[in-house]
Design a protein that fits this description.
The complex is a heterodimer. Helices cover 76% and strands 0% of the residues of chain A. Chain A is mainly α. In chain A, helix 4 packs antiparallel against helix 10 and helix 7 packs antiparallel against helix 11. The radius of gyration of chain B is 26 Å and the shape is globular. The chains are: A mainly alpha, B mainly alpha. Chains A and B meet through helix 1, helix 2, helix 4, helix 5 and helix 6 of A and helix 1, helix 2, helix 4, helix 5 and helix 6 of B.
Chain lengths: 297, 326
């Protein structure tokens, strides 16, 4: 799936542009422009509404913000952060997400290394089982795991959701890392072993350092997946505000605030802020993670 | 708060340290206590152990257990045979959910793949490709809950005569005088389409990225040769690009089919399955938490699993073919 742009492609495109002249390419640019506009409007409307006073949001469309009087306010953000539990939820989301990103990646790295570079009977069948588990819907695991957590007294605790996300994230993480590790050159390992390095040294000093790009992609992907998750949090954490991450809090606000769009839009934007920062700064890694694994259960 | 920070510190630094310590102990024991020749036999299993334990506890065992629970009553006390399936497959709301998931499956898959392919092909020809693709891909970074809020706001409804605050109604009433504003999320069957549109907005970027990467793998010479032979852009697209991208399109489409079958967040946030928009995953959640009927909820989960199994087998087949090439 991973392909390198073919050199000369850009040149060929430019040649064609010159051949066609600006007139024939006009519709192309227009089509792309329109599609991009349509895709941006929903987010832009949300962002603008979150800065408008309540009275205006409920009576006029967000595009009227561009006409006088230009009234904007930070009051909505202040309100959702203080009275609607969004500040607490933001902290909760960080609490849920960081361990739930670190744990599966490290555990998957061990397993992926074994799958890629150790020989053992049943290796291919076991890995095939991991590929099968990629698409198992979460729904088939919810009730037994919830009962298990209840029996252990873990329901509603962060530990429960860390463990659950680790389990759910593993098939994809193992799959992606095994494919990456498997692509490393054999000579690299042979020379390391000849130099007397043990498996521990090869893994921590050699394999992990050269795999930073793959691990970064995976980390971003897992981070986004956990940060944006609603179902797992809803089931294992329950609705208590003290532990609820942002998707759970916002979905509750949708019910309780109903038409208070200025607050809902502000809350939604708070939950989007961190993913958007990550998206814009690490876009390359983000798309790599998707390209590497294209199937996620 | 202080004890929370302590917990956070323990987890963020302690868990990786514990995992590294585990491997260190494993290697230490192997090197010192096991004869050199025996080491390669024991080592893989010890490296796999944490992962296998998690997979067994959180995926394999629960799936098997759900199969068993689906044959038992609400409190999982008595065996009831196929009664849960009989109920679920004749219940009105569940049939509605199955119908809606079928609509999702067809419409959502078709639209995401078609738009993804269209945008990949269009942006491939311009110099600002990466910027345009970033715009389309951006919704993937947003949670479905936030996307639900965004689109609920887009579909907002005000009675005729009052200024419309929802973008969709405002645009339509502005463009077509005499257009009656619609309550998009309430009027069936179009409210299903409204939900699917929101999901398409999120997932098109995903399809675009994969298809675009596939497109870059088609050599320019092939396309140029066709053009020199007199093929127009339309023919190049349908006769060359689409066939050559066949396997990539299949990958994307199967992923979208799974997404459609598992649709939950958007429906939960925007309509919660009211007004004839119920879907399987939301139905299961309601049986589980509102009705507290674990038997029926498990039966619904099994139905979902059965629907996904063909896709799983397809994935496995494709994977084995890829491995054969490696």
């Amino acid at each position: 799936m991973d392909t390198v742009a073919i050199p000369g492609r850009r040149a060929a495109a430019l040649q064609q542009a010159q051949r066609d002249g600006p007139l024939r390419r006009g519709p192309l640019h227009l089509a792309i422009l329109i599609i991009c506009l349509i895709w941006m409007i929903p987010t832009v409307g949300l962002l603008i509404s979150s800065f408008r006073p309540p009275a205006l949001v409920s009576t006029t469309g967000w595009w009227m913000a561009f006409t006088p009087p230009f009234i904007f306010t930070l009051e909505n953000y202040q309100r959702v952060l203080t009275t609607n539990n969004m500040a607490q939820s933001f902290v909760n989301s960080l609490f849920v997400t960081i361990p739930a990103t670190v744990m599966p990646i490290l555990i998957a790295a061990f397993a992926a290394y074994a799958f890629a570079w150790m020989d053992f009977p049943g290796r291919n069948w076991l890995f095939l089982a991991v590929v099968g588990l990629l698409v198992v819907p979460l729904q088939t695991t919810l009730i037994p795991v919830l009962r298990l957590f209840t029996a252990l007294g873990l329901t509603g605790t962060f530990l429960a959701i860390w463990l659950a996300h680790t389990g759910y994230g593993l098939p994809f993480a193992i799959y992606l890392l095994r494919n990456f590790f498997g692509g490393l050159p054999r000579e690299m390992f042979e020379s390391a072993y000849l130099d007397g390095a043990g498996t521990w040294t090869v893994f921590f000093r050699l394999v992990l350092p050269v795999s930073v790009p793959a691990i970064a992609s995976l980390a971003i992907f897992q981070f986004m997946w956990v940060w944006n998750d609603l179902l797992v949090a809803l089931v294992y954490l329950g609705g208590q505000p003290s532990v609820a991450p942002m998707p759970v809090t916002i979905s509750n606000l949708v019910n309780s605030l109903g038409q208070d769009w200025q607050l809902l839009t502000a809350a939604a934007f708070i939950s989007m802020a961190l993913p958007l920062v990550i998206f814009f700064s690490l876009q390359r890694y983000f798309t790599h993670g998707i390209l590497a694994g294209s199937v996620k259960g | 708060m202080a004890d929370r920070l302590l917990l956070a510190a323990i987890v963020v630094f302690g868990v990786p340290a514990a995992l590294v310590a585990y491997i260190s102990v494993v290697e230490g024991v192997l090197m010192r206590l096991i004869p050199f020749k025996q080491q390669p036999r024991a080592r893989p299993w010890l490296w796999l152990l944490p992962a296998l334990a998690f997979l067994l506890v959180f995926l394999v065992y629960p799936t098997l257990n759900t199969l068993a629970l689906s044959l038992q009553d609400a409190q999982s006390e008595h065996f009831v045979g196929l009664a849960n399936y009989a109920y679920v497959l004749t219940d009105g709301t569940m049939l509605m959910a199955l119908r809606n998931n079928a609509i999702w499956l067809v419409l959502f898959t078709l639209l995401t793949v078609a738009f993804g392919l269209l945008i990949a092909v269009l942006t491939d020809r311009v110099s600002y490709e990466s910027a345009a693709k970033a715009v389309i891909f951006l919704p993937m970074a947003i949670s479905f809950v936030a996307a639900g809020v965004i689109w609920k706001f887009m579909y907002d409804y005000r009675p005729p005569g009052v200024p419309q605050t929802g973008t969709v109604n405002a645009v339509l009433t502005g463009l077509f005088p005499g257009f009656e504003p619609q309550a998009w999320l309430i009027n069936p069957p179009w409210n299903n389409v409204a939900l699917i549109v929101a999901a398409v907005w999120v997932w098109t970027g995903f399809c675009m990225v994969i298809l675009s990467a596939g497109l870059k793998g088609i050599s320019t010479e092939v396309l140029e040769a066709a053009r020199v032979d007199g093929a127009n852009e339309w023919q190049v697209f349908w006769r060359i690009i689409v066939p050559l991208l066949g396997s990539t399109i299949a990958v994307v489409a199967t992923t979208m089919i799974i997404t459609a079958l598992k649709a939950f967040d958007i429906v939960y946030v925007m309509t919660n399955g009211n007004f004839d928009t119920e879907v399987i995953a939301n139905r299961m959640y309601k049986e589980m938490f509102n009705a507290r009927d674990f038997g029926r909820a498990s039966a619904i989960a099994v139905i979902l699993l059965l629907a996904i199994i063909p896709v799983m087998l397809l994935n496995l087949k494709r994977f084995r073919e890829q491995e054969a090439i490696r």
